[in-house]
Amino acid sequence: MTFKTPDLCDQFEADLGTSVRVVAPMFKCYGGRNAFSGRIATLKLFEDNSLVRTAFGEDGKGKVLVIDGGGSLRCALVGDQLAILAQKNGWEGVIVYGCIRDSGDINGIDIGVRALDTHPQKSIKKNVGDRDIAVTFGGVTFKPGEYLYADEDGVLVSEKPLT
Which of 42, 128, 142, 146 has the most CB atoms within 10 Å of its CB? Predict the structure, then answer.
């Protein structure tokens, strides 16, 4: 499936702001996929990536993991080993409202990654956080089961499939 977010914005212009939402431009592009899309699964956590490993250990075919890390720039929530696990289990991509690490290695892995920035320090591991709840950042609420489209131009969220 190929798409361009600008074309989707043009095609669904009447739905922008309601059933189709544009995430504020805040993310840097990482990973081996420039464009990715899928059904949304969510995590809400803060400086603890235990639930990220759990989620990436599950079947992710056709899914994008959206991690609300509270925008923390104090540690990384995804590194190369988690990206490899996600790729092995079929995840299309991940959006991290926080940091990643091992970005050079992640760029060689066949998965789409968007994150605020990089940080060399790993997170704590206390198994604290929430799964499959609505999370909000970048001016958009991400609901589990909705659809996400990301490419070099931005990130869109939609109540229904756009492609």
Answer: 142
Look up the pTM and report it: 0.97
Place of tokens 């997170």: 123
Contact between 6 and 149 under an 8 Å Cβ cutoff? The reply is no
The token duo for 129 is 């956080």
> What's the rounded Cα separation, in Å, for the pair 52 and 27?
19
Answer for the pair 136, 17: CB distance below 8 angstroms, yes or no. Answer: no
DSSP helix/strand/coil, 11: helix
Query: Within 13 Å and on the Cβ side, how many CA atoms surround 32?
Result: 13
The span from the CA of 18 to the CA of 158, in Å, is 9
129: left (phi over 0), alpha (psi -120 to 50) or beta: left
pLDDT in tens, 33-73: 999 999 999 999 999 999 999 999 999 999 999 999 999 99
Domain 5-11+29-157 sits in CATH at 3.50.30.40
Look at residues 138, 136, 134 and name the one whose alpha carbon lies nearest to residue 116.
138
Could you tell me the residue ranges of all domains in the chain? 5-11+29-157
CA distance 22 to 86: 25
